[in-house]
């Protein structure tokens, strides 16, 4: 059963309400089935919650996401003196009209492409991090904004909640992740991306990559696609187009020279690849710069 709560890149979560509570007696979480997602952060004490048969004990400085449509309840095990915050919100991740990918764009491909925002990502279900040390103060500010009935209050609060969730997501990444790729250089996909970044100004050579990785290429290709949602050739091509965009931004290099710089022998072919990848020709893309 899927219990992860997902957010999407193209629409921020819409906050329903925000609150805080403290109990001085043993507390039992209500038995509920909700049509919205829940974020809980325990500031003091500990809270016991069961979601569809799985028990969670949220300690001080820990969070838990509860998924809409799943029954959750509690036993009389939440300790006296426990205080917590909650955010109730609706995410677009379950919109059946959208075909969201489960893999975000790789950080090295962060220039806009037509499908750039069409993905969803899971929030860390339960846990803590260094970020959680400041979470109580952040939630106090968010709650104050929620209670302050200014124009566009709910939109502002929803945007702030989205940013908070994104920072919480970032804090959950493994410390070994490379700041350039978002992948650990010890993993298969991280090693492939590191190699592609070193050879982005060359034609793609699957044989050289397989030899560098000391792996069968068919296995390597399938494993990379499963980990990233993209083919190795697609990532190599997008890296080259990103390099072209960087050169456009920092120089007046003509298309023919750009093409040659990036290892394309035919500038017309380079232009076709650029337009297929970005949706615009090199000249049209460049004309957007100020």
Automatic annotation (TrEMBL):
Residues 190-288 form the HTH araC/xylS-type domain. PROSITE patterns: HTH_ARAC_FAMILY_1, HTH_ARAC_FAMILY_2. Keywords: DNA-binding, Transcription, Transcription regulation. GO terms for molecular function: DNA-binding transcription factor activity; sequence-specific DNA binding. Gene3D superfamilies: Homeodomain-like, Jelly Rolls. This is Helix-turn-helix transcriptional regulator. It comes from Paenibacillus sedimenti. The lineage of its organism: Bacteria, Bacillati, Bacillota, Bacilli, Bacillales.
């Amino acid at each position: 059963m899927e219990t992860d709560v997902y957010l999407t890149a193209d629409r921020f979560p819409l906050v329903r309400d925000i609150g805080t509570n403290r109990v001085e007696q043993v507390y039992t979480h209500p038995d509920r089935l909700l049509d919205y997602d829940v974020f809980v952060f325990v500031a003091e004490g500990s809270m016991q919650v069961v979601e569809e048969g799985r028990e969670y004990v949220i300690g001080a400085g820990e969070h838990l996401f509860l998924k809409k449509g799943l029954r959750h309840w509690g036993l009389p095990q939440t300790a006296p003196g426990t205080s917590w915050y909650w955010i109730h919100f609706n995410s677009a991740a379950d919109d059946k009209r959208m075909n969201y990918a489960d893999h975000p764009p790789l950080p090295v491909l962060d220039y806009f492409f037509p499908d750039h925002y069409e993905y969803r990502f899971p929030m860390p279900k339960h846990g803590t991090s260094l970020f959680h040390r400041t979470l109580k103060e952040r939630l106090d500010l968010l709650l104050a904004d929620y209670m302050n009935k200014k124009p566009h209050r709910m939109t502002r609060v929803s945007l702030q909640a989205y940013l908070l969730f994104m920072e919480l997501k970032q804090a959950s990444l493994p410390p070994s992740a490379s700041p350039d790729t978002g992948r650990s250089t010890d993993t298969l996909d991280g090693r492939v991306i590191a190699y592609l970044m070193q050879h982005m100004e060359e034609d793609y050579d699957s044989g050289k990559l397989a030899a560098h990785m000391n792996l069968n290429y068919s296995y390597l290709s399938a494993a990379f696609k499963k980990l990233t949602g993209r083919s190795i050739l697609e990532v190599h091509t997008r890296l080259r187009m990103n390099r072209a965009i960087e050169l456009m931004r920092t120089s007046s290099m003509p298309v023919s020279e750009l093409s040659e710089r990036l290892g394309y022998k035919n500038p017309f072919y380079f232009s076709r690849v650029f337009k297929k990848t970005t949706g615009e020709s090199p000249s049209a893309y460049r004309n957007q710069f100020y």
